[in-house]
Amino acid sequence: MKQVVQNYKSGELAVLDVPVPGCKPGGVLVRTAYSLISTGTELMKVSEAGMSMLGKARSRPDQVAKVMQSVATNGVPATYRKVMGKLDSYTPLGYSLCGVVEQVGAGIDDVKVGDLVACAGNEHALHAELNWVPKNLYTPVPDGLAPRHAAFGTVGSIAMQGVRQGEPQLGEVALVIGLGLIGQLVVQLLTAAGVRVVGADPDPTRCELAERLGAAACGDPASTAVEAAVAELTGGHGVDQVFLAAGGGSNQPVELAARLCRDRGRVVDIGKCRLDLPWNAYYEKELDVRFSRSYGPGRYDPAYELEGRDYPIGYVRWTERRNLACFLDLLARGSVDVEPLVSHVADFDDAVETYQSLKDGDLKAVAVLFRYPEQAEEQGESAAPEVSVPEVRRTGTTVAPVRSAKTPVRLAFVGAGNYATSMLLPHLAGREGVELSTVVTTTALSAANAQRKFGFAEATTDLDTVLGDKSIDAVFVVTRHSSHAELTRRALLAGKTVFVEKPLALTEDELAGVLAAVEESGNDRLQVGFNRRFAPLLQEARKRFGSRTGPASLRYLVNAGKLQHGSWYLQQGAEGSRFVGEGGHFIDTASWLLDADPVSVYATAAPGNEDLQVVLRYPDGSTATISYVTTGAAGFPKETLDLIADGKVLRLDDFVRASVYSDGTVGRKQWVSSRLPKARDKGQNAELAAFIKAVRTGGPMPVPLESLVATTSATLAVQAGLAGGAPVTLARAR
Predict the structure, then answer these.
(1) Taking a C-beta distance cutoff of 8 angstroms, is the pair 562, 630 a contact?
(2) Is 715:583 a contact under the CB 8 Å cutoff?
(3) Which member of 260, 287, 357, 641 has the lowest number of beta carbons within 10 Å of its beta carbon?
(4) Residue 304 falls within a domain, yes or no?
């Protein structure tokens, strides 16, 4: 299928051929009829992409701060790869469309194939021929409403949420500053609610349009016309609400709002304009400044948008889906008219030229629609407290094929997110003896991006195609945590060698399911992405530390830091706790250094936050204490480790420097690594080399399956320990 994309690094716009998205449970696959260009939001994004790197940095200081923090934590090279990987990728455009339901996912019963729906979301209502849309981001189109008008549903919801934030009442007077697409819709919604409206915009044609659509008077904000109209309509008291629907860097809108708003009036920011509030003006009138967040309650909440968990209507009357349905109803009843806003309708194939004309100013428009072909090739169906350490059973000896040096190892990737594209694929692309065969993702564009950047032969959204391809030697599972166990199980049953990023499983049942697949298939060719044991610096330090005779004490401080708002790590109900997702790294590293698997786990948490203390006990009496903290200073190193035994100390400082101290009979001996100021090698490259070697030669996997299972069981036992408040015995640990 085709999709409009942009490269944020170069500014390139393209209509790209990408795989068709799969129809996942909890949503529908929609074939687009019309999609709407947001001439404000999207053109701002297009313009930013055309800036220099300095210009991009100035326009997004919040992202610059994140980059600087990443440099402090991960070093310059890793941060550079991550940032450039994000910049040099195709990103989607669009967030408002109307289309026909082509396929219905499991759990959906409010629409059927062939129904017309309006869709929202900058990840789901894209300028693309097909989109998968979750339940709370689509709504059926009322009978008789034209698809080209229903395509305005999302921007209409944005305008409606802004109006709701202003709490208008019958007979009041409002000022709308900025008469672009959102401003024109705000004017109509206020008029429909019985509010008299004054509009302000420097473009006279937009002022005329707003007056035709119901505004009492409009004019240039720099003239006296707007102020005179407000004085006449309000008896000199000022307007009850001001709606800021303007963009740009001028502070004029907020200054005008203060001048023309009545005492204790409301100012609502809907657009993205400069907000340097003049303190005296806002203080003296005690103005109520409010923000309107996109389409309404539910926006940016993964539980609502992705998992389909609606808010009870008794507590949240207007959610983003109910706003969407309400706006379509107003359109269908003629209370709002969007046809006069349509400046241009372009064929979807002409998308690049249309954006360029808008950017260059050759096409002056309030609203532009893309029209998609009415007929398209039909798509086929898509496939859519004691903790027991499970025993690893095999039906027989796994026989892995041995490849000659001239035969490349063919790899498939399931998932192509940030970690895969920044930490794994750069080490595999171009590696001698490796062929990147197929990349599978649930979103078509991410597969196409990975194919373009890393040279995959194929990109698809169909996992069964990969599992059924006998020429593929190994499958990498690099998806969200909740899918790891099931995807690993399916790949093992298909006879593939599997590399799965941590965690292997989120529950004991999931872990048991993976091992059942090993027993059923006899295929134990599995590696979990515990990369730190492969880090060259830690390998060298362990060698320098040497063997030990007595029990050891290991201390591991992980300064994990706070998560960014919106991180999917926060979705603990679906994706497991943060420690379950990441803690296996640290348990595996401790067990590798102590050359054993733990026999018990004790965990305790600080009240009111996510800081954890995890104590692991080993068969010879050794202990490992992992302090996993989120409340530390951001500038402190993420990982520091001390291993103490037999008069020796191994010290690791965040994979930048390591040292070993030992007391001998003659005197004190010391080894200190050379400092690595520009890079932190946490072992991904060496880990992948060991995995590829095992696949090529048919030799043993880099880490025994029993060890992977023991580490996973110990990680899961942390939650049980927190709940029980006592040490958890790990039964049958080797």
Answers:
(1) yes
(2) yes
(3) 357
(4) no
